[in-house]
Amino acid sequence: MHKMQFLQFFLCITVLLLYCNVSRSAFLCELNQANPFKVALTSTVDIAGKGNFTTIQSAVDSIPSGNTKWIRIQIFAGVYREKVTITYDKTCIFLDGAGSRETFIEWDGHERTNTSATFTSYAENLVVKGIGFKNTYNLGPKQNDLVPALAAEILGDKAAFYNCSFFGVQDTLWDVGGRHYFYQCYIQGGADFIFGKGQSFYEQSVLYYSLETYGQGTYIGYITAQGRDSADDPSGFVFKDCVILGKGKAYLGRAWKAFSRVIIANSKLSDIVVPVGWDAWQFVGHEDQLTYAEEDNSGPGADTSKRVPWQKKLSEGELNQFLSVDRFINQEGWIAKLPTVD
């Protein structure tokens, strides 16, 4: 996000956070133990016309409003050139692709953060497996203006992504709010490409920084921009057993809100990481409120000897809290009550 876009960006997000359901919910969907996927039914999407639907959006729209049983949408391999939106009332959806390099959803929306996403989910209780999400506006040989161009926007509580990929440049993945789990995913971008107020756990995933140059010169980008805004806000991004690599140089994160929180642990960091590591951005002078921490990482980018002096050193108890999926996002055991994804 450039400073000239900050006011527009702030206003858009303020409106969304006021009206979107990003709070915790105790609601869990009904599993069908007699089905191998534990779902009530499966519908199919095939761009070639050999399924129940030819577009993903039409399959989503077919699910009854207020649905309480897990429904699987099997999406065959192909490039689906469409914007997909899951509204609040379409709960309990399992999007099951053929693989993150086989099933792609692509669009080229841009300019406005809150309207550009290729994939948007407002609903709670969502599972996605084996799908690649792309915003093509700045991908490939062309280099358009650096503006928000999101691959995905996730607003509902209790969303899990397995073996998915997210491709963009600026603002690739808007982790808006709620508890989210990302397992063995690939996320690519250059400017704040994982951002938002999510309370999210990223495990065994790859973060690829791609914006080595922009315009006529080099560009130093940002991997995260987390939006925790108060001391009692439970949100934060935890990256455990991940790999951070790419081309060029990038900060691990910058503070989008006053209590921004990011923890990176047991991960491999390449030399793309700038030595200082972190940027207080709009909150210089209030760095004591930020929680940026690194623990037991390896690789040339993991050298913390030149990190900002205000980087946090967490206690063993704090690390145990953040680095456990169950303690950080899964207190109700909702992850164990999802459809079968193996």
Automatic annotation (TrEMBL):
Species: Quercus lobata
Keyword flag Plastid: no
Keywords: Aspartyl esterase, Cell wall, Glycoprotein, Hydrolase, Secreted, Signal
Localization (cell): Secreted, Cell wall
Signal peptide residue numbers: 1-25
Involved pathway(s): Glycan metabolism; pectin degradation; 2-dehydro-3-deoxy-D-gluconate from pectin: step 1/5
Family under the similarity heading: Belongs to the pectinesterase family.
GO BP: cell wall modification; pectin catabolic process
Record InterPro entries: Pectin_lyas_fold (IPR012334), Pectin_lyase_fold/virulence (IPR011050), Pectinesterase_cat (IPR000070)
Protein name: pectinesterase
EC number(s) from the headed UniProt entry: 3.1.1.11
Pectinesterase catalytic domain mapped to chain residues: 45-330
Record-level Gene Ontology MF annotations: pectinesterase activity
Pfam family, one: Pectinesterase
Keyword Glycoprotein: yes
Function according to Swiss-Prot or TrEMBL: Acts in the modification of cell walls via demethylesterification of cell wall pectin.
Reactions catalysed, as given in the entry: [(1->4)-alpha-D-galacturonosyl methyl ester](n) + n H2O = [(1->4)-alpha-D-galacturonosyl](n) + n methanol + n H(+)
